[in-house]
Amino acid sequence: MTRRLLLVGAGHAHLEVLRQLKEEPINNVDICLISPSDYQYYSGMFSGFTEGIYTREETRVNIRKLAKETGVHFIKKMAEKILPSHHKLICMDGSVYPFDVISFDIGSKSLPEEFCETVARSIKPNYHFIDHIQEIRQTSQPLIVGGGAAGTELALSIQAYKEKHRLQGQVRLVTSETILPQSPSWVSSKMKTLLLKKGIQVWENERVKEVGDHYIKTDFGNKIRHTGVLWLGGALSDPIFQRSKVEVDNKGFAMVRSTLQFEEYDYIFGAGDCVTLSEYPELPKSGVYAVKQGPILFENLKNYMTDQPLIDYSPQKTALYILSTGRKKGFLIYGPLVNHSHRAWKVKNKIDLEFMEKYK
Ligand SMILES: Cc1cc2nc3c(=O)[nH]c(=O)nc-3n(C[C@H](O)[C@H](O)[C@H](O)COP(=O)(O)OP(=O)(O)OC[C@H]3O[C@@H](n4cnc5c(N)ncnc54)[C@H](O)[C@@H]3O)c2cc1C
């Protein structure tokens, strides 16, 4: 009898599942991919696109095409709720999809609910990225909220774009913590020095509490003018898991075991930003982990559907981050090691191009 596997979201881990399915199909399983766009945009190349190094095509994977080549049905929809014990998924348009096994790789959100009706923009889901960045990089005082890896990288890339095209203005960055708060303090101050040297204005330890059409206000009492706000203030969960009453952490991310199965349901799997591992609750929400979970997720979906034992995922102790800082220079962070050079950018460029090559 044919069973149905639903893949929800075309994030990093599901791209790998699709790629492996092409090489190793699972017999008697009907597979559907549900995602709201024909394309999956790769965040590793967002900085390069912003600065004008990569084209739109280079930055994205055509998932409709990839699904077709893999024999997977592509359904262009947004999932809204799971009815776990009924084995059903409900989409935003009210359509219902029954499943035997389901897997989530839907990423995270970044814009808090209270700012959704303001001029602040989020690049999540990530197919919004191109339009928002093309608009904001042309304006004279774009303001980035968030001083983590994504916020600093995009601030530097927009500034580099402005320099390259001799556009007037200056990027502004406001963050509720320090710059790169998860790194050692000397790494944070090195990055802050770089931002200032590039002409970016920085406000640290100030939380945005109001977003107006032309200014933001912080809890420190500062009123900062802007010509557009891009919100990159850290990963927030999609409400789908709370809505579905599955077990979540205190931020609403679905709790999974090391086999990437949901805590209470063996037939619901999840990977990437949208889940929190019970054994590693502090693991950062970043693409490097979603990528590494891909092969384990494929193996476990296949094994679960063929009654084979599942394997465990355990994250690497140290992850490599290379942030593009403009003009093809990279800021490499690996544990306590930091290197800011053209060579670091070349390594990043190679990793990113090789990643995309696998799914084209
Ligand atoms: C500017 C920027 C730069 C970054 N650079 C790096 C980096 O260099 N290295 C790194 O490790 N991390 C980086 N990150 C973080 C990284 O982007 C995320 O951690 C990563 O994308 C998470 O991958 P994912 O597979 O969980 O989900 P995503 O890549 O976000 O993919 C989620 C998918 O699910 C779909 N989707 C969303 N909601 C639904 C729904 N309700 N129903 C169906 N489908 C849905 C989306 O359309 C998308 O296809 C960066 C982030 C930003 C913003």
UniProtKB/TrEMBL annotation:
Pfam family, one: Pyr_redox_2
Keywords: FAD, Flavoprotein, Oxidoreductase
Cofactor annotation: FAD
Domain annotation FAD/NAD(P)-binding: ranges: 4-294
Molecular function per GO: NAD(P)H dehydrogenase (quinone) activity
Entry annotated with the keyword Flavoprotein: yes
Keyword Translocase applies: no
Annotated InterPro entries: FAD/NAD-bd_sf, FAD/NAD-binding_dom, NADH-Q_oxidoreductase
Annotated signal peptide: none
GO biological process: aerobic electron transport chain
Family in the record: Belongs to the NADH dehydrogenase family.
Protein name as catalogued: Pyridine nucleotide-disulfide oxidoreductase
Organism: Halobacillus mangrovi
